Amino acid sequence: MLVTCNTLYNKKKKIPVEKMSLRLSAFGLIVYKDKILLIQMKHTGNFFFPGGGVNLGEKIEVGLQREIREETGVKVKIKKFLTFKESFFYYDPDDLAFHNLSLLFICEPLNLKLIKDDQVKDAEAIKPRWLSLNKLFDRDFQSFGYEILQTFLKKKNAC
Known about the structure:
Blueprint: E1 2-7, E2 12-16, E3 20-32, E4 35-41, E5 47-48, E6 51-53, H1 60-72, E7 76-91, E8 96-109, E9 125-132, H2 145-158
Parallel strand pairs: 1-7, 3-8
Antiparallel strand pairs: 1-2, 3-4, 3-6, 4-5, 4-9, 7-8
């Protein structure tokens, strides 16, 4: 059986199901005033939310806080669950394919200072930045990032 995956470069690629791995990941939407904390993707230059893979045996909240800290230097308090996103993803640089289950959480920053770019501890995430919410567009985001941002903004404006 072949599964159609989205590649890192937003193309479609059919992958044999036996080549795929199941991956649980968690990402944080971290907003302070009118800015959101995003990381840039090394290979595409697009933005996404800090976070990533949760290790086997690691609690989701602990994995999320670890990933955010490694990629940005920011410590967070997880406020509430925002949404879930399932995706089939092919990571071109390492020839890996994933059936990815992403959990997205609204987080509160406990500090605002970002680590320097050369201190980011991640293979794909680079350049953490606080960016203006009103200056972001679909073309700026990796994968389903803009869709998630819109979900967040709708819920935020409904409160």
